[in-house]
Fold these 3 entries.
Entry 1:
Amino acid sequence: MSDIYKRKLDHIELCTNGDVENGVHRGLFEEVHLLHDALPELAMDELDLQAKFLDHQLSAPLMITGMTGGPAEAGEINRGLAILCADMGIAFGVGSQRIVARAPESTETFRVRSVAPNVVLIGNIGVMQAKALGAARVLELVMAIEADYLAVHLNPAMELVQPGTDADRDFRGGYDTIGHLVDALGGRVLIKECGTGLSPKVVRRLMGLGVRAVDVSGVGGTSWIKVEALRNEGMHGRLGKTFAAWGLPTAPATAMARSVAPDATIVASGGIDNGLTAARALALGASVAGLARPVLQAWQREGAAGAYGFLSEVLAGLRMAMMLTGSRSVADLRDTPRVYGPNLHGWLQQTGVLR
């Protein structure tokens, strides 16, 4: 088995069973307190969960963010979850297609259109891999799986705790690369972090390049730095443990992104594992709440039925939060009153979101 296939299988195993969270907080969503409405004057069947994701309309403001691809097991996961997302009217992202450049046969593990023709599908490539491949080759990767959009992921922290020559050490040219991809794909680009968050400076500059969507992917859920730390020993393993909680928590990252990009599609991921947390993310300004590891764990435990049951419970929790705040729609939820705990308040005040 090649090293890159082994790495993908390690990721599935560690994200299913390993201790891969930062252990400090859950994205600071625990410090978002939505005000209870004891007389909401609504019926559950009046609630409207529809949400816009770039040029598509979703039945609910959820997205399974990119996890895997490459090994046969990953293909089974991608196809099964894509079917669920299509049935539920939510978006689906595949894992990094970087492996395709080295193992073209792995393309099949990313192809889900044949089983989920109507799913809103997001491809995936790292920004430095996109730079090396060039815009034309990246466009071929998107077309090969018939993706609606391309997620370009940023993961310098994760790369720096990986040993070996495959790990990135030169992060120059990222903005130019993204600008070329925005042009080549007609704006069908989502820029996403990988668990350490997007700062307002980065989001602002991305908007200047014509980027219309970002996934802040903050600290709070899976720490990919910690995942790599568990895979490695020596200095890189120790560095991974030291930096396991590095980055911007998801809750403030979401609010900060909305403050500098009021018209953008914003995905909040990192620490979202139930409907109440999804509601808190939407209240902070997210267009869509993204989640990955909890879905993978449900799939690994009970297959499609387990994943469907988990996602259904997330949606039930979101509906309950909307009812208990008197929010008829996702837009209403964003306007609902809330109180922030001290740590989150400090983040928002010191970064200018609260004045």
Entry 2:
Amino acid sequence: MSTGRQALQSALDENGGAIPFDTFMGIALHHPQDGYYTRNVRTIGSRGDFTTVPQLTPALGEAIGQWLRAQANRCGWKRFNVIECGPGSGSLASAVMKSFGWLGKRKVDLHLVETSEPLRAEQRKFVRGTWHSAIEEALALCEGGALIYHNEFFDAFPCRVFRKENDGWTELHLKAIEGKLQEIFLAPARPLPASTVFARDWNDGQRVEVFEPVREWMRGMTASWQSGAMLVIDYGGTTEEIYHRRPAGTLRAYRGQQRLTGDEVYEMPGRQDITADVNFDDLAMWGREFGWKVGQIKPLGELAAAAPGAEAFRCVSFAKL
């Protein structure tokens, strides 16, 4: 049995045979030896499980570079630190740095936050920079002042999944039945997370996802981040946008360029990507909670009109003054 499956079985045993979905997602994606993002490198691009916008065009990198220059000017910085979180293949960082030109690159110190050693090796083929295991580590080296960006980063965090019932909310758990993981919905053992979804009036049976660890990630960097701006780009939208005519929610997996839903999401932990739409209303609410200046939630096309598939993505900026 792989160490990842051992960790999954241990989690099931420790919790009476049923685990919350976010526990499963955390093991499946981020287990140190067998997690999808820690062991699979050849998963991005036409031969992998999914293709991201930076693999298709340099337009997004050029648009982010323009945004970074505008923010540096606003801060009055002649030389500045740039941090990318979750750089993936490194193609986006490469396009961003190329957008500065030869002279411009000399004014930028690039930092990359990446926990996967195989992915770091892949990224080093494209860019030069300083690698870190956590955003707080990068910000410490930047003395708190940095411009931060990330693309399809938050959707790799584990999420909690809830279903509206006539008497309240239940939470998705997974239980091993005849050797297969199957869904069961139980009363939440933990408090409901801070989210805009719980303020809406839903029909019974509506499923929603909340990226509670994203809020904790944002909270964790607040003390280290003293000045600058952050640009968030991800697949998703507002609460209204992502759940319009989607009573089953947005949870899904990808394997071999195929979109998987239902029980297929649980079939091959560590061998396929698992994700859900990012709720930008939640991001904005959390940013305000931590005292950040929150920009307008916009379609990605307003930032990078030439980026393919831009209509499915949203972006929002935060500033720490």
Entry 3:
Amino acid sequence: MTSQERVIHSLESCPKNAKPAILTIGNFDGVHRGHQAVIERAHQIAEQQHAPLTVLTFSNHPASVLKPDLRLIPLCTNAYRYHLLAQCHADLIVAITFTRAFANQSAEEFLHSVNKHLPFSHLILGYDACIGKDRQGNREQVEAIANRWGFTLEYLEAQRLDDDIISSTRIRNLLQQGSLDEATHLLGRRPSYFGAATPGQGLGRTMGFPTLNLDVTGLCLPPYGVYAITANTPSGPHRGVANLGTAPTIRSDERILLEAFLFDCHQDIPPGDVEVFLHTFLRPEQKFANIDALKAQIACDVEAAQRQGFSSIRIEIEKGC
């Protein structure tokens, strides 16, 4: 089953399972190591109970409704988030729209509506999870509901690195600063982007460097520039080099693309999603005087990226939670 096939967008669409689900709830932006710990614990219980693991999340960030003036930049697209959750063994991903009416429910009202369509026996939450209006459904309130209703409730301790709590906000700051290695430790993987390759102008192919292009507009990004990369593609894993930015020498549309040239890839990549991992920053993006100057620099970038040492591409790319 593909990650897309595991996703539904309303509680009313939940399938009728033979056994109550093992449930976890959260936004899971970036599916970082803290999120992975929560989902892995839920997965352990699901295996013990021979029950389905369901992740309840949101197709829009709650902050877009609760704090509309706060411009929160996501670490990944919804499609990538669902893909990563599926890699973490989620059997079902329920991605509902967070609305003002939804936000006005009490914790008990919300959990009742969930349980009505998605019966659950265990609820696994992160250390700071609060449910319901104005985050009033704290641990004490949810424990009281669990005792009344008879489901098992478990909160995981905060996941830390270097004594600081792992969080999406911390990762965003590190990425924007260009601290790829530090972000990697918190994410549990290299910083990465995912999606269907978009068609380009074909200039890369005419220069001898055909690219796969991912539109990363609106996502949290490191500084624009050229990176050594690995990529997971429908034809398998590849090393390569990529430009992140607006490619000012050849484009004027201001669209932010990750344009990846893959080494040892002598045929067109079959249609499908591509996952690109950023390893090493090689140089800032720049505008060249002409195409010949750009072509010469790309050749130097390729040489620089090929000199980079990578651990096993397949192990890194294919590992799940």
